[in-house]
Amino acid sequence: MSIDVHRRVKKKIEREERAYEIQQLMKEKHSDEYEVLEEVFDRSTLMTIYDLMNKGVIAEMRGVVKAGKESRIYWGVSQEGEDLAIKIYLTVSAEFRRGMLPYIMGDPRFKNIRRSSRALIYAWAQKEFKNLHLAYEAGVRVPKPIAVSNNVLIMEFIGEAGISAPTLREAEIKRPKSIYRTLISYVDKLYKKAKLVHGDLSEYNVMIWDGKPVIFDVSQAVPIEHPNSVQYLIRDLNNLNRFFRRLGVEVTPVDDLLRRITGGQV
């Protein structure tokens, strides 16, 4: 056996031993959580979660908040006792991978990304983290981004005691006109300050917390130089106008909003 082959075999054995060690540690320290996670996630994901625990980003994982085809969101707690939303992207959803391609492949930030399954999922998690950071810095109310590693995204939990805040569709809207104006201002800030377009904004991905809107699910948000950014912006504005018109709000025509937000550049 050559020296190179011997080294590769040795490294493989070491990785397998380390993975087994991590699994045992997780079972000992977080047995209930691990049993639930082990049923759903692959070894790489479990190692990522353990690494975040080991670094002190996550102190506890307490239960599933939302389970979808593309990801699962867990309620967690930080070392400081703050509630966390732990979003774990599934690495086996082929339909999800096909759906994300138009948003990644047209995004200049990800022009060199490989199209392999795991690489795309990791890029998508990074994309949501970066979009959250840009939106948060622009003054848009979104869950505060905390950390990202591989297919695991950690952010502020919007809600209380593991129960997420209601969506715009679910909530009792007491001041629809004010919320409409706030959301339009968020779209404006996203475009002008964060240089982003949400791309999928509707009553399904806005939460109401303390009487105010919080935008979430920003993974598909694209930079304004994306070839489809204007199309996505128009769709976002149409969605908001449609929803609030039903609530009796006198909405601003989409053409007027578009001119205001883009400065008449489109």
Structural commentary:
This protein has 266 residues and is an alpha+beta fold. It has 2 domains: 3-160, 2-Layer Sandwich (Phosphorylase Kinase, domain 1); 165-262, Transferase(Phosphotransferase) domain 1 (Transferase(Phosphotransferase), domain 1, Orthogonal Bundle), CATH 1.10.510. 47% of the residues lie in helices and 18% in strands. It has 8 helices and 11 strands. The chain has helices at residues 3-29, 31-38, 43-54, 94-105, 117-137, 176-192, 229-246, 254-262, and strands spanning 60-67, 71-77, 83-89, 145-149, 152-156, 159-160, 163-164, 196-197, 206-209, 212-215, 222-223. The strands form 4 sheets. Strands 1-2-3-5-4 form a 5-stranded antiparallel β-sheet, sandwiched between helices. It has a two-stranded antiparallel sheet with strand order 6-7. A two-stranded antiparallel sheet has the order 8-11. Strand 2 (71-77) and strand 3 (83-89) form a beta hairpin. Helix 1 crosses helix 2 (31-38) and helix 6 (176-192) runs parallel beside helix 8. It is globular.
Largest sheet: 5 strands, antiparallel
Strand content range: 15-25%
Count of discrete domains: 2
Radius of gyration: 21 Å
Shape: globular
Specify the helix fraction band.
Answer: 40-55%
CATH level-4 homologous superfamily of the largest domain: Phosphorylase Kinase, domain 1
Number of helices: 8
Sequence stretches where pLDDT stays below 50 over 5 or more residues: none
Mean of residue pLDDT values? 84
Which terms would index this structure?
Phosphorylase Kinase, domain 1; single chain; alpha+beta; 2 domains; two-stranded antiparallel ribbon; 266 residues
